[in-house]
Design brief:
The complex is a heterotetramer of chains A (357), B (203), C (371) and D (176).
Chain B: H1 2-25, E1 50-52, H2 62-66, E2 72-78, E3 96-104, E4 123-125, E5 140-142, H3 148-183, H4 189-202
Antiparallel strand pairs in B: 1-4, 2-3, 3-5
Chain C: E1 8-12, E2 24-30, E3 33-40, H1 48-54, H2 57-65, H3 72-87, H4 93-122, H5 126-146, E4 155-156, E5 159-160, H6 168-191, H7 194-200, H8 208-213, H9 219-223, H10 230-233, H11 259-283, E6 302-310, E7 313-321, E8 327-333, H12 335-341, H13 343-347, H14 352-361, H15 366-370
Antiparallel strand pairs in C: 1-2, 2-3, 4-5, 6-7, 7-8
Helix pairs in contact in C: 2-3, 3-4, 4-5, 4-11, 4-14, 5-6, 6-11
Chain D: H1 4-15, E1 19-23, E2 31-34, H2 39-48, E3 56-64, E4 69-72, E5 78-81, E6 84-92, E7 99-107, E8 112-114, H3 123-134, E9 137-139, E10 168-169, E11 172-173
Parallel strand pairs in D: 2-7, 8-9
Antiparallel strand pairs in D: 1-2, 3-6, 4-5, 6-7, 10-11
The chains are: A mainly alpha (357), B alpha+beta (203), C alpha+beta (371), D alpha+beta (176).
Chain lengths: 357, 203, 371, 176
């Protein structure tokens, strides 16, 4: 979309490709990470009757900027006994994994990095790249805590991808599309067309879909939570057990990469939930732009709705994090294999049956 | 099967309750304060940095002896006759020049054991708590009011006074000895030692 | 082809976020399963016993504060009690009441730290700060009374350093009123949370026989199902004048003596302590708190072993006096020191994550273990 | 509930000579003095006898009696020759609720006491501490290492009354 537009203006495919690939980073990921880190600190602070950062800027708004400047200035420590190549490469891979997800996310009807037909599968595949990066970091650090964290992380992310995929499969089955754009377009204009409320189906089918979709939404939210290593599933970096898991040995900008990747991932998975179940960039009740005849306003509104939904789920992630204790490794696995996977299979089966009606 | 779903439900339910609690706290006013800009009101019995009111100190060394970590060091010099040291506020007469009253706050454990023994209530704990330093030596507080020169003078005075006194004593002793010797010329052996002893003292 | 495996030795501590100080644990792991744990202590050794031989008796009190720094009031209480028994000092009634109030407030403060940090160990950070918020109010009560927040030097041999602050009773009543709903909130947020129960129930079970043989005391012993509290079983001070219960572990969520029992016994003990404080501030008599303080502490030759129920268990002072101004020997039976011995027994067969849970549940203070 | 005298009588019936005497002349606690190499048997009896049931060891502490001959060498450092080190056992029965104090004294030159770790597991670290601080050797102890001091501390036993700080430990100056 944007690519074509740029290509028409500039005539250079390389330049427009370049701009398009950097756009999400500068327009979205970096500002989002800045905001999310601050928001996390503020949310946690207020949940704990504290104030949080207050010094840098009004109510500490520039705190993250100050932190980034600090991290940039820090010495890049590479412990002597590490596997240097892997050690340096791992943060890049982790960041690349979570960054590449943004290419396929439809922020609004005209702002999609790349309109991949297999969008949804692409996102799941690319998030898998993060596992490789984490394992690499854990192994290369040559530290037992890091290794334990990395092993836990690999086991966790791979296990929790199964329920995620099963629910996505259900959605694919119902809607018959793999493209996130089409999926968003299907859930047009009003909130009763959202997948959580049965999607575009009508009549009895819709009513039967609703409970399935609510449970499915819960399952996918929980399992994506586990995929991004957030509490209650933050065992790979369990602070009180493994110091900080796979990124124990990292400092300075490399640590910031992991950090940025974590927050980018948080938004990515929230976006997936929003796209699949909550209509993506669609407004819950029509567009102001259409009502008053300013059609160029619509994409902006869509962008607003999309970020609002995404941020809401990010907020819920933070809310959960500051409420819950964490699981133990075996319980985490048991929860996945005993609860989430059977439930998602049942949902898949039932949804298949209902779609035959 | 029932247990299976019950457990799942229980998990969800308790998580919801927890989330309700934390959500409510989002709107509870903060209990913390912005420390260096806002400072808490400290109670009057606050036990922080010691202060010594040297006007009242009689140099009795009680506080130093009570201290469990020996952070108070006191040196005193006796006054010479004619020095006016004044009186403490509760009417005790001072008899000692305090030439050294050091408190090492790096050692001090703020236990307040030094306060009750003080006969003139001149050592007490204040509510000053911000006195961190970059050098450990800067935590050594010197409370003695005399300047270095004065201290030397006092020490010298006392030494001179002592010398004088010893000399007087020696002279007196000599006189007495002479008087005795004059009275009892028969026993010189025992007397010969004593003047030499006095000489040693005066040296 | 057989897969070659080997045990991994993981060194946990002395600098680790959840070893509660400078404890070093040598974990022998098979995967994540614990084969054996070897605790190494002594990183915080400050020679309390050697120091006290060089101090006069009243000078030892600031040093006792620094052993169990989360329950300083009780350390002083125990020492003062031992010295009073050795010297045969009769303490005014008001002093005893104030000591009980302070002791119980200290017990609540100490348990709040234990529960809060336990939550943080398990991964829930918010309860930790809620607990500290409440503890802060108790510390403020101590601060207005004696001027210090942590290391009080308040309970002296034969008396107290200060009488109660005029506001103390009012503020304590306010605190009790505010604290009760907070306790319920803590239960909602943490104690009955399904994940928390999952993490702590049936983990680190301490059977009663083992507990007694290892000399485990205090809440840990009670959680194993024994109704044993020195406040009732070997009464000291004026504890026999109050009406309160001794909570005992029931295995409500798992087996008796598991981590959850050890956790919850502390919650219930705080409720009982509140009862004691409420009764004590109603009954407190008038009097002079300094009247029985001896001018010169010079006990007769002899020895005494006195124990009190510290928030962590039986705190014993074994004092040998040779008739001089300095004690000839002060040995402290620190509850954490004894409890720590049973730790390897509890851990065997559980996972790395459980080590943290078990360590938090036995509530040790390294200052006391190493003294 | 049994008093110390009654307990002593039961012990005398069983062991005869190895129990030395009951001391109650000093104030507050009376105690029983026992032989250092027999103490494990006595303790075993104390724990298992149905009339006594001392199932809990409250405290075990080493003590330097400092009753030997004090010798000063030419540098002014004082050492104690001869005399005894002792170990105190404070026992309690949680079932019968009585208490009992046992003391053993052992030669300062060759301090050896049998270990009671087998009887009360609780004694393990207490005995290690007594070894660490006084150098009392507990025979049959499974793991008699230093506990509070560094494992490689070679400068004596710090709680002995004639202990002197070394000037250096591992090349580090000790009194800093």
């Amino acid at each position: 979309m944007i690519y074509e537009w740029l290509y028409n203006i500039t005539g250079s495919s390389i330049l427009s490709m370049f701009v398009v690939s950097l756009l999400p980073l500068f327009v979205f990921i970096l500002p989002f990470a800045l905001l999310a880190v601050l928001a996390e600190r503020k949310v946690s602070a207020h949940m704990q009757d504290r104030l949080g950062p207050m010094r840098v800027g009004y109510h500490g708004i520039l705190q993250t900027v100050a932190d980034i400047i600090k991290l940039l200035q820090k010495e890049d420590l590479v412990p002597a006994a590490t596997d240097k190549k892997l050690f340096n490469f791992a943060p890049l891979l982790v960041f690349a994994g979570s960054y590449a997800v943004f290419a396929a996310i439809p922020f609004s009807s005209i702002f999609i990095g790349s309109q991949i037909q297999l969008g949804i599968i692409y996102i799941v595949a690319v998030t898998g790249l993060v596992v490789a990066g984490i394992l690499m970091a854990g192994w290369a650090s040559n530290n037992k805590y890091s290794l334990l964290g990395a092993m836990r992380s690999a086991a966790q992310i791979i296990s929790y991808e199964i329920p995620t995929l099963l629910i996505i499969l259900t959605i694919i089955m119902i809607t018959g599309t793999l493209s996130l754009y089409t999926l968003s377009e299907l859930q047009t204009s009003y909130f009763w067309n959202w997948m959580i409320l049965g999607g575009p189906a009508t009549g009895l089918q819709k009513i039967l879909y609703i409970p399935l979709m609510i449970i499915g939404c819960l399952v996918i939210y929980i399992s994506t939570l586990a995929e991004v290593n957030r509490t209650p599933f933050d065992i790979p970096e369990a602070e009180s057990e493994l110091v900080s898991g796979y990124h124990t040995e990292y400092s300075g900008m490399k640590f910031a990469m992991f950090f940025l990747a974590e927050y980018a991932n948080m938004f990515a998975v929230s976006a997936i939930v929003a796209i699949i179940f909550f209509g993506g960039y669609q407004s819950p009740f029509g567009y102001l732009g259409n009502a008053i005849g300013l059609h160029w306003l619509v994409p902006i509104e869509q962008f607003f709705w999309f970020t609002a939904k995404g941020l809401f789920f990010v907020f819920v992630q933070m809310w959960l994090r500051w409420t819950l204790p964490r699981f133990r490794v075996d319980q985490l696995m048991a929860f996945c294999w005993k609860y989430l996977i059977p439930i998602s299979f049942v949902i898949l089966l039932l949804a298949g049956l209902i779609s035959l009606i | 099967m029932r247990d299976y779903f019950l457990k799942f439900w229980e998990g969800l339910y308790t998580i919801m309750i927890g989330m309700k609690v934390t959500f409510r706290h989002l709107f509870v006013p903060s209990v913390t304060i912005q420390y260096p800009t806002v400072k808490p009101q400290l109670p009057e019995r606050e036990r922080n940095r010691l202060y010594v009111n040297m006007d009242d100190c009689i140099g009795c060394d009680q506080c130093s002896r009570a201290c469990p970590v020996s952070c108070i060091e006191i040196e005193t010099v006796k006054s010479t006759p004619g020095d006016d040291l004044g009186k403490t506020s509760n009417g005790k007469k001072k008899a000692l020049w305090v030439t050294k009253f050091d408190i090492d706050f790096a050692k001090c454990c703020y236990c307040e054991l030094c306060v009750p023994p003080c006969p003139t209530d001149c050592i007490y704990m204040t509510d000053v708590y911000e006195f961190s330093e970059f050098e450990r030596d800067s935590l050594l507080y010197d409370f003695a009011t005399l300047t270095q020169e004065e201290r030397e003078i006092k020490k010298k005075n006392f030494k001179e006074f002592q010398v004088k006194k010893e000399a007087e004593k020696a002279a007196a002793a000599k006189k007495a000895a002479e008087a005795k010797a004059a009275a009892q010329k028969e026993k010189p052996n025992a007397k010969t030692d004593k003047p030499t002893d006095d000489k040693k003292g005066t040296d | 082809m057989a897969l070659k495996t080997e045990e991994m030795v993981l060194n946990m501590g002395p600098q680790h976020p959840s070893t509660h100080g400078v404890l070093r644990l040598e974990l022998q792991l098979e995967g994540e399963i614990i084969k054996d744990v070897i605790p190494h202590i002594g990183y915080l050794h400050r020679c309390f016993e050697k120091h006290s031989e060089a101090m006069t008796y009243p000078q030892v009190i600031p040093y006792t504060d620094r052993m169990d720094y989360l329950a300083s009031m009780y350390n002083e209480f125990g020492y003062a009690l031992a010295m009073e028994r050795l010297m045969g000092i009769e303490v005014p009634e008001r002093v005893e009441y104030i000591r009980v109030i302070m002791g119980e407030l200290q017990r609540i403060a100490s348990h709040l730290v234990a529960l809060g940090t336990y939550g943080a160990d398990i991964g829930a950070f918010t309860p930790f700060l809620f607990c500290f918020r409440d503890r802060e109010r108790i510390l403020h009560l101590f601060e207005i009374t004696c001027g210090a927040r942590l290391l009080y030097n308040y309970i002296w041999i034969g008396g107290l350093s200060n009488d109660l602050h005029p506001d103390f009773i009012r503020l304590t009543k306010e605190f009790i009123k505010d604290f009760k709903p907070n306790l319920k909130e803590l239960n909602d947020l943490l104690s009955f949370n399904a994940i928390f129960i999952e993490r702590t129930a049936d983990v680190g079970i301490l059977p009663l026989e083992t507990a007694i043989n290892y000399g485990v005391t205090g809440p840990n012993l009670r959680a194993s199902g024994m109704k044993w509290d020195l406040r009732k079983d070997d009464p000291y001070s004026v504890y026999n004048k109050f009406d309160y219960e001794i909570p005992v572990g029931s295995g409500e969520k798992g087996k008796i003596g598991d981590c959850w029992d050890r956790y919850f016994i502390r919650v219930r003990e705080m409720e009982e302590s509140l009862k004691i404080i409420e009764q004590a501030i109603e009954q407190i008599p008038d009097g002079d708190v300094k009247s029985a303080i001896p001018k010169r502490v010079k006990p007769p030759e002899g020895q005494i072993y006195t124990r009190v129920e510290n928030p962590r268990g039986e705190l014993g002072y074994f004092i040998i006096s040779d008739g001089s101004l300095n004690p000839s020997r002060v040995k402290v039976r620190a509850p954490s020191f004894v409890t720590m011995q049973v730790f390897p027994e509890l851990c065997k067969g559980f996972m790395v994550a459980d080590v943290v849970a078990i360590l938090g549940s036995i509530d040790i203070v390294l200052g006391e273990i190493d003294r | 509930m049994k008093t110390s005298e009654e307990i002593l009588n039961i012990l005398k019936d069983k062991f005869g000579d190895s129990i030395i005497e009951l001391k109650s002349d000093k104030p507050i606690d009376s105690f029983v003095l026992a032989a250092p190499l027999e103490v494990d048997k006595i303790c075993m009896f104390l724990r298992d006898n149905s009339d006594l049931q001392f199932d809990s060891l409250m405290n075990l502490s080493g003590v330097d009696d400092a009753n030997g001959e004090k010798v000063k060498d030419n540098k002014g450092t004082e050492t104690i020759n001869g005399g005894t080190l002792s170990v105190w056992y404070h026992l309690e029965s949680t079932k019968l609720k009585h208490k009992f104090t046992l003391k053993v004294s052992t030669e300062r030159a060759k301090p050896e006491v049998t270990s009671v770790t087998e009887i009360w597991k609780c004694a393990d670290w207490h005995e290690r501490e007594a070894y660490d601080m006084y150098g009392i050797i507990f025979l049959n102890h499974p793991d008699l290492r230093r506990i509070l001091m560094p494992y490689d501390w070679e400068h004596g036993y710090p709680l002995r009354k004639d202990y002197r700080n070394p000037e250096f430990y591992q090349g580090m100056k000790v009194p800093y």
